[in-house]
Amino acid sequence: MIVTAAPPPSLRPPPSDQDLRSLLLIRHFELALLRLFEQGAVSGTTHTCLGQEYIPVALTPLLRDDDFVFSNHRGHGHFLARHAEPYGLLAEIMGREGAVCGGIGGSQHLYHRRFLSTGVQGESLPVATGVALKLAGSGALACAYIGDGTWGEGAVYEALNMALLWRLPLLVVVEHNGIAQSTPTSAQLAGTIGARAAAFGVRHHRVTSADVEEIRAGLAPLVHAVRAEPSPLVVEFVTHRIGPHSKGDDTRSPAEIQRARESDWYARYAEADPERFGRIDREQLALVRQVTAEVTARPLVVPPPAFQERP
């Protein structure tokens, strides 16, 4: 199974300023989050999407306000591409005032303006299928992000089965980064994701590009078809996670990590248009530093009183 994408044959200019701002906001947010974790300012754990930021950035303009987005444990980029609210997200992760869910959901359990996330692998697919059933005929769709490791969960196949049988507007976005926590995909996934989708008659589209505009142009008619027909679609992105699984637990070899870094969009866009990229990069870094300073100075959220049964 091929799990690495070849570098593009030539450098293309970076996307629009708006797309660059979204990409760089996510990149600097995730880096800041890792630093905060190292300082002991973030409880529990944290999963960053470093290297995969371009996927939700490319997809977001193809989604409508009435669509539902279901995310997973690696969902900060999904959220920030959909809702550019770094203050509320960081406050949520740190349990500070101003949090988008009152500070009780953290980074893995968000519910905000038709955006939902879960840390349970595969849990989002049947829920997204149920929501898609309600959306059928409205023109809206349910978009669910999963990883290649999630294809070991039975819920994925139950959801695909019902989505095709009921002809539901369901978009399944697979971020195939080649490793499920610490297990290489080649050691835990037989066959291909495309063949598994085909077993249910579900359409499958494989993306190896990391170019935002190229991805968006290729997906636009396919996403439109999900709404218009309607019918489910699995879009598989061959991508790379350049950061650890969570915090510092990276089991890959230095050579594997280096190969992932060589495919990173950041360096390629910086080289293609240094002046414009550098200006927006500094702008978004300053924004994230401002967000971090303000949120860390806020009071902690007071936890709600424990539930008590009435006599």
From TrEMBL:
The keyword rRNA processing does not apply. Keywords: Oxidoreductase, Thiamine pyrophosphate. Gene3D superfamilies: 3.40.50.970. Its cofactor is thiamine diphosphate. It comes from the Bacteria. Signal peptide: none annotated. Residues 24-271 form the Dehydrogenase E1 component domain. This is Thiamine pyrophosphate-dependent dehydrogenase E1 component subunit alpha. The lineage of its organism: Bacteria, Bacillati, Actinomycetota, Actinomycetes, Streptosporangiales.
